[in-house]
Design goal:
This protein is of the alpha/beta class. The protein has three domains: about 120 residues, HprK N-terminal domain-like (Udp-n-acetylmuramoylalanyl-d-glutamate--2,6- Diaminopimelate Ligase, Chain: A, domain 1); about 130 residues, Alpha-Beta Plaits (2-Layer Sandwich); about 100 residues, no CATH class. It is built from 15 helices and ten strands. A hairpin with a 2-residue loop joins strand 7 and strand 8.
Length: about 375
């Protein structure tokens, strides 16, 4: 999210009319800045000047020799340039030999018109600089989250993220759905949010910090709608409200846990204060002892199921989902209530439980929750 590549450059407004002619397999090449060639010949192009540059030119020097375009392609590729974009002032089309070479090298080749090259270079510079600023802020966020800092240092770092922060705030983590036919623009979001807010792309998600006055009222649903987001686009996790920036590490943690819960339960929005026991379970899912705990309990039921072709694990899970209610469990599993009663008795015998109440019910419930989290962890482990 913090390294600019050709794909991302092409999403910028001034690049909407760029026509990709060849080299589609190289669109992930890194772009560090924009550049142009004017009077340079291919032999003048060297790595020190053109490394990772998106190069523009109208190729006026060879306007009567289109066969020489292939020499520029080879020279720019060897110099480590990101790609080559040719303005259609003199070339409306590119010869097949040049296209074949660009495809062979996976070196993107574009045609464009009706825009000044200076504007394109400025647009690239602004995008690259924005990414650099994002990277700096991500490093600060990682320091806040992962270092054992006191509240004074955390507050100091929070103001480095945004010196306009107000003391009251919440954190929001957003992850776009994999199948959402929607392109989220972080630049558009930054224009919608006021100067007291922060939005940063982190890994596969976005972190938003909203700060506000103590008595200020606002609707999160309305805000998400203003950002162009709804339940068809994303999952959302929301922290509790805090009134001291020295606690922003807790706010980050809570919004991330809430997002994981939202993904796990396939819900649009999850608020940390409503997660219950999952406030504890998500942070320990990677702990070897939590894995040993649920495996020790459920493995006994799995072995019985394998030997007797039964469904005790599914029954245990459904029983916990239904808060220990036999009737609801039977309806969830489409089984007679007597069948469920028999299975519950069998579960108690195998686990050596005298009953499924109190501490023993809680032991099974915790094991089931950890077991199901572990099964679906691939959905949220990249956060």
């Amino acid at each position: 999210m913090t390294i600019t590549n050709i794909y991302e450059i092409l999403t910028l407004k001034k690049f909407n009319n760029f026509q990709l002619i060849a080299g589609a397999n190289g669109l992930d090449r890194i772009v560090s800045r924009g550049g142009f060639i004017d009077h340079e010949m291919p032999e003048d192009i060297n790595e020190s000047e053109y490394q990772n540059e998106m190069i523009f030119s109208n190729l006026a020097l060879i306007k009567n020799n289109p066969e020489n375009i292939i020499n520029y392609i080879n020279a720019l590729y060897n110099a480590g340039s990101a790609c080559f974009a040719i303005k259609t002032t003199f070339f409306k089309e590119i010869q097949d030999a040049a296209i074949e070479t660009a495809n062979k090298l996976s070196f993107p080749l574009f045609l464009f018109d009706d825009i000044y090259i200076e504007e394109l270079i400025l647009e690239i510079d602004q995008e690259v600089n924005s990414k650099k600023q994002d990277l700096k802020k991500i490093k600060i966020i990682n320091e806040i989250e992962n270092s054992n800092l006191n509240s004074f240092k955390i507050k100091e770092l929070a103001y480095e993220l945004n010196h306009y922060f107000k003391p009251n705030y919440i954190s929001i983590y957003i992850k776009l759905l994999a199948d959402a036919k929607y392109s989220f623009s972080i630049e558009s979001a930054r224009k919608i949010l006021n100067k007291h807010a922060l939005i940063i792309p982190i890994k596969s998600s976005y972190l938003i910090v909203l700060s506000f006055d103590k008595n200020e009222n606002f609707s999160l649903i309305a805000l998400l709608n203003n950002l162009g987001l709804n339940e068809t686009h994303c999952n959302v996790g929301i922290s509790r409200k805090y009134n001291e920036l020295g606690n922003i590490n807790k706010s980050f943690h809570e919004s991330k846990i809430s997002l994981k819960y939202s993904i796990y339960k396939e819900e649009y929005i999850a608020n940390y204060e409503e997660l219950g026991i999952y406030q504890i379970l998500f942070p320990i899912i990677d702990n070897q002892y939590s894995y040993m705990y649920f495996e020790d309990i459920l493995q006994k039921l799995k072995l019985y199921d394998e030997e007797h072709h039964s469904n005790l694990v599914d029954t245990a899970c459904a029983y916990i989902h239904c808060d220990g209610d036999i009737k609801s469990t039977s309806e969830e599993l489409f089984q007679h209530m007597n069948t469920i009663r028999y299975r519950i008795r069998k579960i108690k015998v195998i686990l050596n439980f005298q009953s499924l109440k109190g501490m023993q019910y809680e032991s099974l419930a915790t094991a089931v929750h950890l077991y199901e989290l572990n099964k679906k962890r691939f959905n949220f482990e990249d956060l």
